Amino acid sequence: MRLDDYPTEPRFSATVLKSEPINDEGADVEVRELVLEVDRPEFHFDIGQSIGVLVEGPKEFGESVHHRLYTVADTPPADSKSKPEVTIVVRRCNYIDDYSGEEYEGVSSNYLCDRKPGDKLSITGPFGLAFKVPENKKANLLLIGLGTGIAPFRAFLKHIYQEVGDWEGKVRLLHGARSGLELLYMNDKRDDFALYYDEDTFEAIQALSPRPNWADPIAWDYAIENRSEEILGMLDDENTYVYVAGLVPIRDALDKVFANMVGSPESWAKKKTELKEAGRWVELLY
Question: Whole-angstrom Cα distance, residue 6 to residue 18?
């Protein structure tokens, strides 16, 4: 489904309650976590869903209103009597024009990163239900997130460990970033996943660009193939679910790595199709 296919109505007013950076100082990017209070008490969302944010944009971009989706990074509030709060993660983005070479600020990301507590936003949604929590607590989960794609897994893990509880299956969280400075919710400023490090079933695996050439592509091959025996065993288990979130290029990178692991692109294509048809491989890419 293309972004243009998502409706921009109905619209809801939301107030910024909090905005704070969540990546380490010194990183080349700025990533902020925003907590929004929706003015409609009946507004409801589920884990894995996204909300849209509507932003007035400059005409040279061809759009008078920009509509961008952001995955919810927290579980729904337990108190249905209060106004719902929605947490999203936003990376400040700039773009280079392919023809002029000029740099432009990303309209929606810069708008959101500049918002202060008390500011009002116009939102839409919620949309989709990408990642279903298995009913069987013995299910294995391989969660792969690139950059801000880690956001839905923050909510996912909070739900299975704090709300469901007693999760028995393996949970492997693979987070990719260019450097340790860009890891989200796994750094000195915010290490939310530390809540689960003592869980016997949980393990976080980091995929970073190789040092000293930290600007090189993220080393998915090293991070995944280093655990190939365990991961292939999980994929062969009919009780394993793989959830992938992040930018579209992550798809090709992972396909290449898994093709090497299983022996050929053809073998992986067949295996991935089987996983998808069984609902055991789900992608949330943007």
Answer: 27
Please name the amino acid found at residue 255. D
- Class of the domain covering 3-127: mainly beta
For the chain, what is the mean pLDDT? 83
Which of 7, 14, 277 lies closest to 128 in space, CA to CA? Answer: 7
Q: Where are the domains of the chain?
A: 3-127, 140-285
Q: What is d(CA 185, CA 182) in angstroms, rounded to the nearest whole number? A: 10
Distance CA 248, CA 1 (A): 13
Q: What is the pLDDT of residues 228-241, one digit of tens each?
A: 889 899 999 999 99
CA distance 228 to 172: 13
3-state SS class at 20? strand
Instruction: Give one DSSP letter per residue of 165-227, joined into a string.
Output: ----S-EEEEEEESSGGG-SSSSSS--GGGGGTT-TTEEEEEEEPPSS-TTSPP-HHHHHHTT
